[in-house]
Amino acid sequence: MQFTVAIDGPAAAGKGTISKAVAAHFGFAHLDTGLLYRATGRRVLDGDTPLEAAQALRPEDLARDDLRTGGVAEAASKVAVVPEVRAALVDFQRSFARRDGGAVLDGRDIGTVICPAAEVKLFVTASAEVRAARRFEELKLTDPALTLAQVLADVRVRDERDSSRAEAPLKPAQDAILLDTSDLSIEAAVAQAIAQVSAALPG
Ligand code: C5P
Question: Less packed terminus of the chain by CB within 10 Å, N or C?
């Protein structure tokens, strides 16, 4: 069975958690496409040009444990504006999406560019303040000097760059279902996502 769930949205809206939970619930494979851009950004910080970095990506690049830092997120959103970088990553994402047994892909342009024919498209969002507070809780464990104001500023800069780029900007597909998690517990958000997928599965 081929069945694609596309989950897009801005940083720290909850799409990673929702995607993992949906994939586990239905036994689908999951691809966090942000990791492709983070791993590309990481290689650029190490000296590659953006295109070299995207073309040279190997599974071990995606498994690095240093991809979740603010510096790498920033580098990722910079390489993500380069059209050739995006093009180099398309085929891998599309074949993942159509693998047998169902797939969940989360990112920024899955429903709009990578899988416009996905059976389910969700756009997960939350206010910038709520998203910054969530990200701050995560990051402060490894960076005690960090402030909430700084995280909020970073979230806003990254949102602006992701939404205003010419190529594959962050925006909901026309037929995406909006899921605003600002006032939802993670359990409630996951339950809503699962209900949407269940409704779309072939009887
Ligand atoms: O989702 P995550 O925060 O890991 O993504 C890091 C960056 O990668 C984003 O800010 C965005 O610029 C880029 N990205 C993208 N398209 C995707 C996934 C991520 O442009 N499908």
Answer: C
The Å distance, Cα 68 to ligand 1 centre, comes to: 12
State the burial class of residue 117 (Cβ atoms within 10 Å of its Cβ: 0-12, 13-18, 19+): exposed
Tally of CB atoms within 10 A around 7: 30
Q: What is the largest CA-CA distance in the chain?
A: 52
Q: What is the rounded CA–CA span in Å between residue 196 and residue 192?
A: 6
Q: What is the CATH number of domain 4-198?
A: 3.40.50.300
Indicate if ligand 1 lies below 6 Å from the C-beta of 34. Answer: yes
The model's pTM is: 0.94
Contact 66, 38 (CB under 8 A): no
For residue 32, what are the β-bridge partners?
106
Rounded Cα–Cα distance for residues 69 and 95 (Å):
28
Confidence of residue 27 (pLDDT cuts 50, 70, 90): very high
Residue with CA nearest ligand 1 atom 19: 34
Handedness of CA 104, 109, 115, 121 (dihedral sign): positive
- How far is the centre of ligand 1, averaged over its atoms, from the C-alpha of 99 (Å)? 22
